[in-house]
Amino acid sequence: FVMKDAYSFARNQDEHSEIYEKMATAYSRVYDRLGLGEITFRTKADGGYFTDRNSDEYQTLSALGEDTLYHVPDTDLWYNEEIAPAEAPKVKQGDVAEKSLENIKADGVIGVDELVKHLNVATELTTKTMIYQTDSGEIVAAAVRGGYDINEIKLRKVVGAKSLKLADAETIKRVTGAEIGYAGLLNLPDSVRIVVDESCADRVNFEMGNNVTGEHTINVNWGRDLNEPERYYDVKTAKAGDFHPESGKVYEVEKGVEVGNIFSLESKYPDALGLYYSDDNGEQQHIVMGCYGIGVSRLFGVIAEIFADDRGLIWPENLAPFKVCLIQIGDDETVKNAVEKLYKDLQKSGIEVLWDDRTTARPGEKFADADLMGIPHRVVISQKNLKTCHSELVSESQEKNEEILKLVQDDKNAKFIEYKSRKSGEAEMLTVDELFAKLGA
Fold this sequence. Notes:
elongated; five-stranded mixed sheet; 23 strands
């Protein structure tokens, strides 16, 4: 796994922010030059182990991507699923009267789908309650609406923990009195911190585990059976159909591949290394650090996936090992001399050329290999093309052939070069000047 890494060191947060944004702009230009700019987006993501702040990933859209991305329509806001702020669609129940609380035997029924069938309730009226333990030992009960999952990154930040994990069976039994799968917010000890997702609000007669093994409770209502939370949180993993809370717009959901990432590391690592700077007064001050990475080997995999067809690669020009694949068809001196002159002229113009002068390969094999390698431009010179431009070219006299060849090459209107772009696949006959214009030389 090959990485391109860079680091920055600043005297304060403002200086760091200026450097950080310049690096972000530079990264966007990199992906533009690689031909990925239109489908690669700066995406907010979790800083993970490196920093408490969010990072900025560069995500290239791909149906095969391992990350789920959430885009706010008509904006440049993109979020990785791991931190995407989300507001669930409201549950539509209409004007419904509260029903009597009822405990239902449901031994072994613990999955949402099974609960829906067994209890005959809608998925959005079920409640998932998960018990966690933080690094400090605090027990947290987190609840989301059925159909959603708890987002542990969001939950960790809400409770202010360095880390948290699902409580083990022994802890769950001690706290709730029940086996795994029957936890709920009903009758929990006061020592348990309760965090309720906003998806659980504004529901009537909903289901919940009641902390008794083999039972679930239906027709639970806020205020009557449970104190309504003073505050609802966003601790769920976003899903299709959710709203961006700030704008109120429904997210567009895409798949992406991470091809770069930049982090604000604050002073965590400089402090750990004892790295400081002295200010104008000679006093030691903290250094603010940034980290910037591009996954080079991963990036080339993405490029190969996106810039390809059933014939092979289609390299963007800035990455192609050669700009032109020059194919020689025929091994007589007339053709060879014509190809050699064009080869040298292209090189003099700064164009990198692969000259396929194999005498044992058939034309179709050469064409297939050129397509497979993905070189952006294919140029063919053959005896047939030269003869088309001048019928006298194939004579018994080599001197005569050379003389006519010179006439062909000097003729500005002689279309003896077969050209084809790897992208378009359409072949056309060009003069030398037209070819150089195509190649931007």
